[in-house]
Amino acid sequence: xxxxxxxxxxxxxxxxxxxxxxxxxxxxxxxxxxxxxxxxxxxxxxxxxxxxxxxxxxxxxxxxxxxxxxxxxxxxxxxxxxxxxxxxxxxxxxxxxxxxxxxxxxxxxxxxxxxxxxxxxxxxxxxxxxxxxxxxxxxxxxxxxxxxxxxxxxxxxxxxxxxxxxxxxxxxxxxxxxxxxxxxxxxxxxxxxxxxxxxxxxxxxxxxxxxxxxxxxxxxxxxxxxxxxxxxxxxxxxxxxxxxxxxxxxxxxxxxxxxxxxxxxxxxxxxxxxxxxxxxxxxxxxxxxxxxxxxxxxxxxxxxxxxxxxxxxxxxxxxxxxxxxxxxxxxxxxxxxxxxxxxxxxxxxxxxxxxxxxxxxxxxxxxxxxxxxxxxxxxxxxxxxxxxxxxxxxxxxxxxxxxxxxxxxxxxxxxxxxxxxxxxxxxxxxxxxxxxxxxxxxxxxxxxxxxxxxxxxxxxxxxxxxxxxxxxxxxxxxxxxxxxxxxxxxxxxxxxxxxxxxxxxxxxxxxxxxxxxxxxxxxxxxxxxxxxxxxxxxxxxxxxxxxxxxxxxxxxxxxxxxxxxxxxxxxxxxxxxxxxxxxxxxxxxxxxxxxxxxxxxx
Length: 602
What we know:
Oligomer: single chain
Radius of gyration: 35 Å
Helix content: 25-40%
Low-confidence stretches: 361-374
Largest sheet: 6 strands, parallel
CATH topology of the domain at 125-253: Rossmann fold
Mean pLDDT: 83
Strand order of the largest sheet: 3-2-1-4-5-6
Shape: elongated
Distance between the termini: 81 Å
C-alpha cells in the first residue's frame, strides 16, 4: 500500500476542487478569506490592538475585501502591519475573484451563444446535421410551409454563430418561420434531449456520412422510446442496402428510409441519353411549381382514368389510392370508386379544375410504328458504386458503352460487368485522347470520385466538364453531358447549359428528405419512382406514340394518346424547353426532336 505525502493529498484535493468550475473556485477563495480574516482578528485581539473580536473581524474583512492599505493614523504599529498584510492578500483575492467571475461569465455567454439551453417548443421540425453552404433542405421546408407558422431546430456540431451567419448570408427566412440553432453531438442521446424530440413533429437526419446518419437515427430512436406518447417520424436517406435498418425496427419506430444511391443512379441513367429529364425529376421532388397531392372529389366517382385525362384541368392524374394502396400510372380503364382518392400533380392543393368535355376520338396516327433507332456511343468517366445500377437502368437502345477510368485510386471494373457485349473499356490515358473521345461521343456521363474529398472530386469533375464543353464548341461536336456532383455549392459555381444535366447528391437527398417530412403518405410513391422496380419517369421520342409533326395537338389529347400506349403524360420537351402540367386546351405543334415526359414502365 502506498503512503502519499500530505502535500500530494493537498494537491489532489485542490485539483478536484478547481475542476468543479467557477462556483467551486469562488467557494474555495471565500473559505481562504474567512480563515485569514479570523486569524488576523484573533491576533489583533490577543495583542490588544482593538477592544473586541467583532470590531477586529469587521475591520479585517473590510480591509481584505477593499484591498485598503491602512494609514499611520489608524492605530498602533502592530495593527497597521497586520492590516497591511491583510490588504495585500485582499489585492490578490480581488484580482483572482474578478478573473474567475469574468471567465465564468464568458463561458456562460459562450454556452448561450452555442445554444446549449433546452428548446421549449412543440410540433417543431428537428434537423440533425448541417453542412455550411448546403441550403436545399431548409429552402424546401420554407417553401412547403407557405404562410403557416413553423419552428425548425437545427442541431449540429458546428458553432451556432457560424450557422447563423451562413443562414443570414444565403437563406431568406420569412417572419412566420423561426429557425433555432443548437450546438452539440447529434449521435449523443443526452445532447439530443436539448432538441425536445419527444415533442417534435418530425426528425430529419441530415448528416453527410452514412455512419453518422445511422448513429444519429439510432440515438433519436432510443430517445423516443423514453416517451411512449411521442409520434414523431424519423426520416433519413442512406447510400445503400448495407445501411438500411431491419423492417420491424423501421415499422415500430416510425422510421422512413430511402437509398440515395438508387435515386442518383436512376436519374443519371435516364438523363444520360435524355437531356433535360433531370428538370422533370426535380419538379416532382421539390416544392416549387407543381407538387403531388391526394384529392378526393365525388365528381370523379364512376369515371375512368381515360375520361379523367380530359376531365381534370390544370392537374395530371398520376395515381389512384384504393383501400389504402396507391397504384401509379393506373390502367386507362380503371374506374374511380366511391371513397377512392386520386394522386394529382398540380401547382397547389385543390387548384385543379373540372371540365365537362366530350370525349374525342384520337385519330392522328401519321407515323407508323417503327423500330427504335440506336443511340450514339455513351462514354462513362469514373467508377463508383452507382456504375452497375446505371448500366442496368440504361435504355435498351444504347448502341455502345465505353468506360473511361477517371481518377488515380478508383477501383478496377467488375469483371462480370465488362462482359456485356456492347461495353468496352477505354485503353490509354484519357487526358491525351480527350479530343478523340469527344469526337465519337453521343452522350457523356461523369461520375464522382468517391475515393477523394467531396469538394476535390467536384472540382476535378467540373474541370473535365469545361474541357469537354470547350471541345464541343470548337469542333462542333454533338453530345450531352450528365455530371454527378457531391455538393450544392459546387453546382452554384459550375457553368450552365441546356446540354448539361447536373445530379447533385446533397441536393437530391435534401429534396427527398423534405418531401418525406411533409408527405409521409407519399413514401410508397417516391419509393417506387426512385427504385429499380415499377413505374419510372421517362423522356420518350414522338415515334413510339405515332405523333406527327404536321398536326397540332391539345394537351388533353396528348394525355389520352399516352394512356393508349400505357403511359401517364406529365409534360413535354419542346425546343429544348420543359413544359409540365399545362392547360388541357394548350396546343402544340411538335418538332422532330421534341419528346414526351411520361410516367410508366419501360
